[in-house]
Design a protein that fits this description.
The chain is an all-alpha fold and 63 residues long. It has one helix and no strands. The termini are far apart.
Length: 63
């Protein structure tokens, strides 16, 4: 690869990343069908923790 093609490749990567990151916030408000989002029916409960809580006294390492 020549120096010019490397520069163009870098610029293309930076431009595409900037466009992708810049569009993340604006795309969330896009609703092409104009429908209002409604919450699903049902009771809301918190998700239980996946791992058990560590014990109150944690043993110290030997070394």
């Amino acid at each position: 690869m020549t120096e010019r093609s490397r520069l163009l490749l870098r610029l293309a990567v930076v431009a595409s990343l900037a466009g992708a990151l810049g569009g993340c916030e604006s795309i969330s408000n896009l609703n092409p069908f104009g429908e209002k989002e409604t919450a699903l029916p049902g009771e809301r409960r918190p998700v239980p923790p996946v791992a058990p809580q560590p014990p109150a006294t944690v043993p110290q390492p030997l070394s």
